[in-house]
Amino acid sequence: MIKFILIVNKLGQTRLAQYYTTGLSINKRVALENEITRRCLSRKDKECSFLEFRDLKVIYRRYASLFFLVGVDEEENELGILEFIHCLVETLDRYFENVCELDLMFNIDKAYMILDEMALNGNIIETNKKNIIAPLHIIDQVSKKLK
Amino acid sequence: MSMQVRDLIKAVRGCKTQQKIREVITRESALIRNSFRKEDKINRPRNIYKLIYIHMLGFPSEFGQLECLKLIASPSYIGKRIGYLGLSILVKENQEVLFMSTNIIRNDLSSEDRYIVGLALAALGNIGSSEMLRDLAPEIEKLMESESSYLKKKATLVAIRTIRLVPESVDRFIGKVRTLIGEKNHGVVLTGLQLVLSIVKTEPETIVKFRKLVPGLVRMLKSLINSGYSSEYDFRGTADPFLQYNILRLLRYLGEGSKKSSKLMADILTQVGTSGGITKNVEIAILYEAVLTILSIESDSKLRVTAINTLSRFLSGRHNNSKYVALNTLLKAVNTEPKSLKRHRKVIVECLKDQDISIRRRALDLVFGIMDKQNVESLTQELLDCLPKAENEFRYDITAKICTAIEKFPPNDKWQIDTLIKVLTIGGQYIRDDVSSMMTSVIGRNPDLQYYTLKKLFNILLNDRYRNQTFLQVSSWVIGEYGDILMQKSEKDGELITTTQALDLFQILLESSRTTDGTKYYILTALIKFSTRIEGHDELIKKIIKPYREHVNVELQQRACEFFLLFDYSEIRDPILDRMPVFVEKEIELEIEEEISENNNKGINYNLQENTHTIQNQINNIQNIQNIPNVQNTQNTEMNELLMLNTDTKKTQTQNKQDSLNFLKEIFNGSSSSNTNNMNNMNNNVNNNMNNNGGQDLGLDLGLGLGLGLGLGMNNQSQRQNQNQNKMQMQKQQNQNQTINQNKNQNQNQRQVQNQSQNKSQNQNQNQNQNQSKVQNQPIIVYEKNGMKIEMNFKVGNIRGAPAVMSIIKTTNSSPLLISNYLLQVAVPKTLKAQLSQPSGQNIPPNGNGSINQQLQIIKMVNQKTQLAILLRINYVINGQKIVENKEVSNIPIIF
Description:
heterodimer, A: alpha+beta, five-stranded antiparallel β-sheet, two-stranded antiparallel sheet
C-alpha cells in the first residue's frame, strides 16, 4: 500500500504532497518531508532508488529538477512503484505537454486530480494515460465554454 | 484586496528568505480570513486554492475547513471540485468537519453527473472516516454495480477503505468480487484484485473460498503474457505490468498453505519465471513478484531453485534496484533455501564491492547468512579484503560479522587466532570490544599456539605498522601474560626476541602521544606482570613505571603507585599476578543463559569501563575452577570479585600470602556484614577501617587493584595523599592481620580450620540466598492484553553495597499480529531508584515466536523497610493501533 506521494524540487521544496495515512500534524509532516527529501537529495546517482525510512520504504526517482518520492509499506513491489512513478510522470507530461515545475505549481488542482485518478486510498486504480486524462479534458472543455 | 493565485505563487517564489515567505503568507492568510468572514462567494474557490498552496508550504490553514464544506455544497462543478480538493487536503484530520460533510457527500453520490459522483468517491477514498464509511456503505455498494467503469473502480477502492476502517462490513463486499474480476476494463479488474487482497487480509478464513478464483487468475495472467502488444494497457512494451504483478501477489496469498492451488499455478509461474528478460525494470518488477510468490507458496523444489537462480541473475545484472530487491528477498530465503543459495556465493560476494552502501550492507548480511563451517575461511577472507576499502561506519558492521563468524564457525583454533589477529590489525579501531576477551580465551586454552601467537603479535608490534588501540591493548595483555613463554621459546628457536627489547617496546608505546590512557593501563599491567614472569628486570621495570606515579591521569597514577609498591611485597606480588586460569567458553555461555549472571556482568561493565573484559574473564575463570554455584545471584558485584579473588588465591599455600589474602576477604566480610551477620573481631577491625575516611572504598580499590592488576578509579585525590593512604593502608592491614592472628589463635592450623568454617558458613549463606531467590524467582504476570504478556521475576540482592532487587522483564506476544515500537517505562517510589536496561528489541513477532528481555535494577536509597511497588507504562503498536497503558504492580512479595 502506498503511504504517501511527494513531489519536491532539487532545493527540497515540496511541490505536491498526498498522504494516504492519517495522524500527521503539520509540524510532523514538514519534519518528515524535510528529512526524507534531505536523504534523497544526498544520494548519488549510482545508488539504488530505495531507502528505508522508519518503517517505510521510500522509492524515489529523479526527473530533471523534480524528485518523485513514494512511501510504501513492507509488501509493496518496489520496482512496480518505480513504474508507477514513471507512469505518473508520463501522464503529467502528456497533459501539460512537457511538464515542468511551474506547471505543477500553477496548476496544482489539476495535478491532484491526475493523482486521484491514478491512485486512491493508497491503491493504484488506473494506469492507462488516456483514461486518466479523459475526465480532465472534459472539465477543461466545460470551463472554456463557461468563459 | 487579496491577490490572484498566480500572483501569490509568484510572490512566494520571489522571496529570498524563509522569513519573507512567512510574512507574505501571514498577510495573505489575514486577507483570506477577512474574505471568508464577509461570505465572499465569488472568491471562495480562489481562496481555498490559495490555502491548499499555503498548506503545502507547511503553514496553518484550519480556518478554511468550513469554507470547503460550503464549496462542496455549492451546485457548480468547478466549486465542488475545489471544495473536494480542499476537503481531502485541508480537513484530513478534523473528524467533526468530516462528519458534517457526510450528508453533502451522500447527495453527491446519487448525483446524475458521474464526474460529481467521482469527486465524492475520490474524497471518500482518501479521507473517509469510519463513521462516514459506515453510514455510506449502502451507497458505495450500489455504486460498485454501476454501469460506468469509471465509478466502479473508484467505488471499489472506497470499499477497500471501508473494510480497513470498519472490518465488520467485509461481508457486504465479498459477493461483489467475482463480477469485478470478470470485467474487461483493466482498472476495474485491478481494483477488484486489491479488494480481494484486503478481504483476505481482514478475514483470513475467506481464503478457502477465494481459492476458487485461482484457475481464472491463472488464465488472465497467461493471456496477459501471451497477448504481446496491446495498445490500451501497454506499458513500455509489457502488457499491463501493474495488473500482472497484482495477480501474482494475490496468487501468493491464495497459494500459501494449499498444495492444490499451488499446483494449479505452478505452470504459469514457471513460464513467468523463465521467459521474462531482465533488461527492463518493468520485466524485473514482474519477475520479482513471481519469485516472491514461488518462494511463499507450496511450490516444488525445482521451481524454488529456479526462483533463487532468477534472483541470482538480478545480482549479476547492472541495475542497482534489482540487486537491492534480490538481496532483500534472498535474505528472507536464507533459512528455507540454504543449499541453492550457497551455490550463488560468488555473485553475492561480488555485491560486497558494489558502489551503493545499502547494497553492500545487505550483501554483508547475506554473506553472513550463508556462512557455515565449510565456507567460513574463504568468506571471511572476502570480508577482510573489503575492510580497508569500506567507509568507517560500514567497517563496524564488517568487523562485527567477522567476529561472529570467528566465534561461531571456527574450523580450527589456529585459523581462529590468525583471523582474529588479522581483524585486529586491519580494523582494530572499528571493532566491538569483546573481541579482546575472545582473543585472550582462545590463546589461554591453546598452549601449543601460544608461542606462535605471541611471536606474531610481537613482530607486528615491532614493525610498528599497526597502532590501533584495540590491537595494542590485546597484544600488550597477551605479551604481559605469557611473556615468559615468548622469551624461553624464542631463545630455543634462535629468534632474536629479548626481554629488553620487549620492555623497550613497552616504554616507547607508553611514551608515545598516540597511545591513549586506556591503552597505557594495559601496558602498565603488562609490565608488572612481566616482573613476575621473567626475573632480573625489576629495576628496569621500576624505572619505566616510576614517572607514571605522577601522571595527570588519576587512574594511571594509581596503578603506577600500586604496582610500584608491589615490588616491596614480592610475596604478595607473585600470587596476585599469577597466570590467569584457562577460560572455558561453553560453560560460560551456559551460565550466561541463566539470565541473572548476565545481569550482573552488565553491572560490572558499567563499573570498570574498558577493563571489563579482562576482569570478566578472570571472574568467570575463577568461578569455573572453583565450581562455585552462581554466586552472583545474591552478592553484589564488588563483593563478588573479592570473593572470587579470595577463592582463586586460596590455592596458594604460603602463610604470608594467606594473611594478605585473608585480609581482603575480611574486608569483604566486613562490607557484607550487614547481610551475613557474621560479626566477629575481624569485622570490628574492618568496620573501624570503614569509619576511617573512605576506608572501605580504599580497601576495595586496593583489593581490586592488587588482585586483578586493574584498579578502580579513585576519587580525585592528589597523588601524595593517595600514595600515603595506600601506604598507611597497607601497613594497617598488616598490623591488623598480625594482631588478629595473635588475638585469635597463634596456631596456624586452627586458623585454617576457622577459614574453612567461614567459607562454609558463607557457602551456606549463599545457598540460603539462592533458595530464597528461587522462591522469589517465580515470574509474576504483570500485564496480559492483546496477546501481549509481560512477566517479571524478582531477586533480592545487593548492588554496590545497597540492598537491591534485580528483575528480568520478559515480554511475549501470543497474538497473530506483530507488536512493534514496544517501549517500557518504569517508575518507583522516591525511596527507591530504578535502572532499566535497553530492551533486546522493539518488535515482537506474532504467535509467541520471540520475546523481548529487559533487566531492571531497583536500588534502595533510604534505610527503611520498603514494600516494593512499580508503576509500568507500556507503549506499543499492534494492528496499526498505538497503545499506551499504565499498570501498577503492587503484588510483589518483596519487602526490603
